[in-house]
From TrEMBL, chain B:
Residues 213-232 are annotated as: Disordered. Keywords: Signal. One of its GO terms (molecular function) is hydrolase activity, acting on carbon-nitrogen (but not peptide) bonds. Transmembrane segments: none annotated. The keyword Signal applies. It comes from Tautonia sociabilis. The keyword 4Fe-4S does not apply. This is Amidohydrolase 3 domain-containing protein.
Length: 905, 411
């Protein structure tokens, strides 16, 4: 076996030499081999050198050559000025699906026979979006649908073209999973899975033992093949010494008979038979040993020989060589798991699965990397004690959460970690570009209580260690791979733009427009020090109060009976009131999710008639809904509550305060006009975009008036007086839009839909709100024209990372520059803040983002009845949140949420 | 590996073309294009030929033109052919969502124009194949799907790209509209639509034309609730002011088209026509043009399963029927048709002037003649040779293809 593997690896090396350099790569050569110096950055080296202010990193080829304050920059070096920026090692996503086409992301196996490198598409272009988020390496593996998939690898983030060019470390680990797929809630199946995995590993052990036994037997056999001849030869020699002449003839005979043995003695290694070669070389020293304790064995041998000499010389050897076991290509590699040459990376979520995994590791001497760990309960102590490497994620749950992750606590994963835990963060995305969210997950980890320096370590040196690449990646140190990222600000703040990304010495992303940020003194806030219950009258003050214009400065609020009675830098005459000074904690108005169904789209929609202009979403508002409660906990206290988008005229969106006793602020702030696919319905009019446009025009009374016969059809079950009443409501709503007292909330996605919305907005001549906002990047001129006229509001909804997202966010930032208002909408508080942060990262001014996020209903740009112009205005409801940092920074978390002057649970 | 690397020569050629392209100054400067062959289509080929373009329209066509002062000269060379931009009477794609309002069967005022996605890939692909003008035809799910619109495949302003907002009323004389309808099982269901079979389709057509003719109120069961009189386009068709584009594929459907045309007095054009070779004579004697759907011979078309032969275009032409080719890849279709029997001249007409006439836009496009839009295709050889490639495509005096688009540089 050893030789076979050797032979194979030689083959691999030769093969990789052949394919490593793609023919076109020659053109990149000079750039690759270049010398670069990154000068002036604050280097968070993640190595023993710690933080170096204003240091220089010298790169030669794909390696870091020198790091420090006094590095001599050679003449020919390409000098890149990164002063004012923060330089870190390239970030590592420990669980990614980058470079994997859909089938490779999903598929897995149960016998460990897969190699993820066989499923890599080196031509995929998603890496660009990942690279410009600062991620330079990703770990990929077969999906977790299989309980024993196979080999995972660590790949680079950079130009592809050939798998070999992407691979930083092949066979970095072997993937396994317990209790993850459909069996996660079925105890019997879970047990069976464990048994199956155990059997697989037992099979490996057996395989290894079989081969070892074979090797031993073979050795013995070869020895025995060789020994008698040698003994005989020795004997012959003895004889030769004595009776030379006599033996000439004899030797001639023996030569004929036993060519092999003579050959092995006289001319080692020159014979054709490979087994003979090996046996010969091994048996030589043993012969010497034998010579050492000659007495007994020698006698035996001679005895035997004496007998055998009389008969035929060949028959004294064992008749048959040992039988070679069946060779298994997959197991050839997988046996490296035993003993820990290659780690087993196993996804387990529950305590029992984790304990089973640890038992497997014990029994078979495996090296483990564990991931999942949603609810390890007491087995956590075991992990801490053994310092088992962990891959944790996703920390932000965007989208639906699979059943096995539902048991995670809100503070996960901070409870799992100890001071010296070895861990990395994985994004666990479904789409390749999801790795671009790594920093968002990291920020979320900070907000859940993990110290920031340890999170940054987990993204760099920690991840490298977990993946067994501690000497290769994860630190800014001489000899490491030149993977470097320069951030304009805190690397863990997703709103901090990336200025430069170097991957393997190549500059893969550079934005020369990124400015070095202003120096901000870090403020550590741990607690707001508020009582469990707030009195009915109190004053709260802070050195950091978020003002409606998006700026932050000292301020105080005076609250009485759930209402703000005064606000300002200081409150006069408040000496007798209880005063709470939250110090450096940020007091911010409740955040706004601008146009959202709050997870109640099913209640707030009626799909029988496409013109549901008479509906009001607020009539279906459930103040205790799950989404609402989650939003309140996350500091989102205001919502434009809109009906679902199954109808073309979806109905009226209302302004609501979340968590409040009297939630409805204004039942009609706008009317949803849906031009996207969701409102096309083959079972009723309209089913096409022209039909949608015609219906909206008819609703708004833009042409031809109404078609009564159509109405009769749509409201088939209603009596005439009811229909007349509903029609009257419809006409009122249309009038509100035309007069500008309610917004036209257009939902559009594709370029043609957005164009239709812009057409309608221009025809109406009123403020248009684009929800989505759809493909505005296709109509830059019209969008900036409308924005410049002050008639455009964009509501940004979550959009998965990728080239479209990038272009769209850039278009939003451009529209904001031209004068458009930008708001955000999401059904999860962190997703909402992530939207704002991502917009800032591509160029939206932070103050605009904060205005949209925390400016209240006034930010829509329309009068909202019953809502104050400023959230701090006397008379406004005392709704605010105390944060430990800016709400725009995803690493911040709400310390206290106050609604109607009372602490929300 | 090398697949993704743009061929350097190709890239250089592209860059060179962009450098000499008159895109930037299309409006002010004159452009003179010379080629070994100029296929004018309506007045025969010129060998050699020259075309002078001024202000986005063709100013002069002649064997040799002296370039005016300051004019840009593009010399395509001896082997090259210059021909009018191709006209596709049924451009595939380019629409967001369904190209028909399927919730009612009779939607004569429906226009797909609001759903046109001007940045769609479909237009880029058409442009790459030399097509500069295309009709967007509402699809055959309805008995009367609506109005066809004609657009240019490229241009700066979207409004400039619309050639005709109303190129004919589309009707379906086939079983497509019936294929997904359900019969009335519950008396009160509002989701039931008729017809459910071919006879029903024809019956509904006849009823609609009859109602339109006598000025009756729209039938609320079948017409769309959008504003306006849905029967107006039908009346215009019957008065001869509008052509009727009848989607039909089988021989008996085409005979039905002729019969209905006789009953209501409109001028039909057959769209599809895969079995038209069986009824070439009656089509020729009623002077009904045929727009052949994309030629495909591997499997039958439509729910009826048409029997298609390879020389359908040639047979129609020989019988004296005006033949157009449609449905994308026009050059390849013309090559295919000419290989199996359509004469050369007819094959060139079938992708230029014939469809332009069918759509009523032959005053602007479809041939190289003074006064028409400067929509031109430069080919590096004979248009009907399979090895000939499109060198560039010009729309309204500006070269729009190739443009530096990575997807175009692949291979």
């Amino acid at each position: 076996m050893p030789m076979l593997t050797l032979r194979r690896s030689i083959g691999l090396i030769v093969l990789s030499l052949l394919v490593a350099e793609p023919p076109g790569a020659a053109g990149d050569g000079p750039e690759d081999a270049g010398v670069r110096a990154l000068v002036g950055a604050r280097i968070l080296s993640q190595s023993d050198s710690g933080t170096i202010d204003g240091g220089t990193v010298l790169i030669r080829g794909d390696r870091i050559e020198a790091v420090g304050l006094e590095v001599e920059v050679p003449e020919e070096a390409d000098r890149i000025d990164v002063s004012g920026l923060t330089l870190t090692p390239g970030l590592i996503d420990a669980r990614s699906v980058l470079w994997l086409p859909p089938e490779s992301r999903r598929d897995s196996g149960n016998d460990g026979g897969l190699n993820i490198l066989d499923g890599v598409d080196p031509f995929a272009e998603d890496w660009r979006d990942v690279a410009r988020s600062g991620v330079t390496a990703v770990a990929v593996q077969p999906g977790n649908t299989g309980l024993f998939g196979g080999r995972g690898a660590v790949l680079r983030v950079g130009p592809g073209g050939a798998v070999a060019r992407l691979t930083i470390r092949p066979d970095a680990f072997v993937q396994a999973a317990l209790g993850v797929n459909d069996s996660s809630t079925n105890s019997i199946l879970r047990y069976q899975q464990y048994e199956q995995l155990k059997r697989s590993i037992e099979g490996l052990k057996k395989y290894k033992e079989e081969w070892e036994k074979y090797a031993e037997a073979k050795k013995k056999y070869d020895e025995e093949q060789a020994r008698p001849d040698k003994e005989e030869a020795d004997k012959t020699e003895e004889k030769e010494q004595g009776k030379e002449k006599e033996d000439v003839e004899e030797q001639g005979q023996e030569d004929d008979e036993k060519e092999d043995s003579d050959g092995s003695k006289d001319d080692e290694g020159s014979e054709d038979e490979p087994a003979g070669d090996e046996a010969g070389s091994i048996s030589l020293p043993q012969d010497e040993e034998d010579d050492g304790d000659e007495p007994e064995e020698g006698d035996d041998d001679e005895d035997q020989k004496d007998g055998e000499d009389d008969t035929d010389g060949g028959s004294k050897k064992p008749a048959e060589p040992p039988k070679e076991p069946d060779r298994d290509e997959a197991k050839e590699f997988l046996v490296k798991l035993l003993g820990g040459e290659v780690p087993l990376r196993i996804e387990v979520h529950r305590e029992d699965d984790l304990r089973n995994a640890l038992a497997l590791a014990e029994e078979f001497d495996l090296r483990l990397i564990v991931e999942g760990l949603s609810d390890p309960k007491s087995a956590r102590e075991e992990l801490v004690r053994r310092r088992t490497p962990m891959v944790l994620g996703p920390i932000l749950e965007l989208g639906s959460r699979p059943p096995y992750r539902r048991s995670r606590a809100d503070s996960w994963p901070s409870g799992l970690l100890a001071e010296d835990s070895r861990w990395a963060i994985g994004t666990y995305g479904d789409r390749p570009a999801d790795s671009a969210l790594l920093r968002a997950h990291a920020a979320a980890a900070v907000s859940r209580g993990v110290p920031a320096d340890r999170v940054l370590r987990a993204l760099t040196a920690g991840a490298a260690e977990v993946l067994g690449l501690g000497d290769e990646l994860g630190a800014v140190a001489p000899g490491r791979r030149a993977d470097l990222v320069a951030f304009a600000g805190d690397p863990l703040d997703p709103s901090a733009p990336v200025a430069l990304v170097v991957s393997g010495g190549e500059v893969v992303y550079r934005d020369p427009d990124v400015q070095a940020p202003e120096e901000v003194e870090p403020v550590a806030v741990v607690d707001a020090d508020l009582p469990d219950r707030l009195p009915s009258r109190f004053v709260i003050q802070s050195r950091r109060l978020l003002r409606p214009d998006g700026s932050i400065g000292p301020g105080a609020l005076s609250v009485a009976e759930g209402t703000i009675v005064a606000s300002g830098e200081e409150i006069a005459g408040a000496d007798d009131l209880p005063t709470y000074d939250v110090g450096d904690a940020v007091i911010a108005p409740g955040l706004l999710t601008a146009v959202s169904t709050l997870g109640q789209s099913r209640a707030a929609a009626e799909s029988a008639g496409a013109d549901a202009g008479f509906l009001r979403a607020v009539d279906a508002f459930d103040p205790t809904g799950k989404t609402v409660r989650r939003l309140v906990r996350g500091g989102v206290l205001k919502a434009g509550f809109s009906p679902g988008s199954v109808n073309v005229v979806a109905g009226a969106a209302g302004a609501v305060r979340l968590g409040a006793i009297e939630p409805v602020v204004d039942p009609v702030i706008g009317v949803g006009l849906v031009l996207s696919e969701s409102s096309r319905n083959i079972e009723r009019y309209p089913a096409s975009l022209p039909g949608q446009v015609a219906l909206v025009r008819a609703f708004l009374g833009l042409e031809g008036g109404e078609d009564p016969s159509a109405r009769r059809r749509l409201d088939y079950y209603l009596s005439s007086p009811v229909i007349d009443r509903l029609d009257a409501i419809r006409r009122d709503r249309a009038e509100e839009i035309r007069s500008g007292s309610a917004a036209a909330l257009f939902e559009a996605e594709s370029p043609a839909e957005v164009e239709a919305a812009l057409d309608l907005a221009e025809t109406l001549g009123v403020r248009a709100v684009l929800v989505g906002p759809g493909a505005i990047e296709e109509h830059p001129a019209r969008v900036s024209r409308l924005a410049g006229a002050g008639a455009l509001t964009l509501v940004l909804r979550p959009i998965p990372p990728g080239p479209v997202a990038w272009r769209r966010l850039e278009a939003v930032a451009a529209a904001a520059e031209a004068g458009a208002r930008v708001l955000f909408a999401a059904e999860d508080p962190e997703e909402l803040r992530l939207l704002a942060a991502s917009s800032v990262a591509v160029g939206l001014p932070a103050s605009s983002a904060l205005r949209g996020l925390a400016g209240g209903f006034a930010a829509i740009g329309l009068p909202v009845e019953g809502s104050p112009a400023s959230p701090w205005e006397p008379g406004a409801p005392a709704d605010f949140t105390v944060w430990d940092g800016s709400p725009l920074d995803l690493a911040s978390r709400p310390l206290a949420v106050v609604v109607d002057g009372r602490l929300a649970p | 590996m090398s697949r993704r690397r743009p061929d350097r020569r190709c890239l250089l050629a592209t860059l060179a073309l962009i450098a000499i392209s008159p895109t930037a100054r299309a409006a002010e400067g004159d452009v003179l294009v010379r080629a070994g062959t100029v296929e004018t289509v309506e007045s025969g080929p010129l060998r050699p030929g020259a075309v002078l373009i001024s202000g986005g329209t063709i100013a002069q066509v002649s064997a040799e033109i002296e370039p005016p002062e300051g004019a840009e000269v593009i010399d395509l060379g001896e082997d090259a052919t210059l021909m009018p931009g191709l006209v596709d009477a049924d451009l595939p794609g380019g629409v967001t969502g369904p190209a028909v309002e399927e919730t009612r069967e009779i939607t004569p005022t429906f226009s797909p124009l609001p759903a046109v996605d001007w940045s769609s890939r479909a237009f880029l692909e058409a442009l790459a194949g030399g097509t500069t003008t295309g009709a967007i035809v509402p699809s055959s799910e309805n008995v009367i799907p609506g109005l066809a619109v004609v657009v240019k495949t490229a241009g700066e302003e979207q409004s400039d790209r619309v050639v005709s907002r109303d190129a004919g009323l589309v009707i379906t004389v086939a079983s497509d509209p019936a294929s997904r309808n359900r019969s009335r099982t519950r008396p009160d269901s509002i989701y039931v639509r008729q017809p459910t079979n071919r006879m029903g389709v024809v019956g509904l057509l006849r009823e609609s034309f009859a109602r339109a003719a006598r000025g009756a109120d729209p039938d609320p069961d079948t017409t769309s609730p959008a504003a306006g009189d849905p029967y107006e386009p039908l009346r215009e068709a019957m008065a001869g002011r509008r052509s009727v584009l009848a989607i039909s594929r089988t021989d008996f459907d085409m005979l039905t088209v002729l019969r209905l045309a006789g009953e209501f007095g409109y001028a039909p054009v057959v769209y599809g026509g895969h079995e038209a070779y069986k009824v070439a004579e009656p089509l020729a004697s009623s002077r009904v043009p045929v727009v052949l759907g994309a030629l495909r011979v591997d499997r039958p078309f439509g729910p009826e399963g048409t029997e298609l032969i390879w020389n359908v275009a040639g047979i129609l032409h020989e019988a004296g029927v005006s033949v157009s080719l449609s449905g994308g890849d026009l050059l390849d279709q013309a090559r295919f048709a000419s290989r199996f029997g359509l004469p050369r001249e007819a094959a060139l007409r079938a992708i230029t002037i014939e469809p332009a006439r069918v759509l009523g836009v032959d005053g602007r496009v479809g041939s190289i003649s003074p006064g028409k839009d400067a929509d031109l295709v430069a080919l590096d050889g004979d248009p009907l040779e399979f090895t000939t490639a499109v060198r560039w495509t010009m729309v309204d005096g500006a070269i729009r293809f190739p443009k530096p688009d990575p997807s175009q540089q692949e291979d």
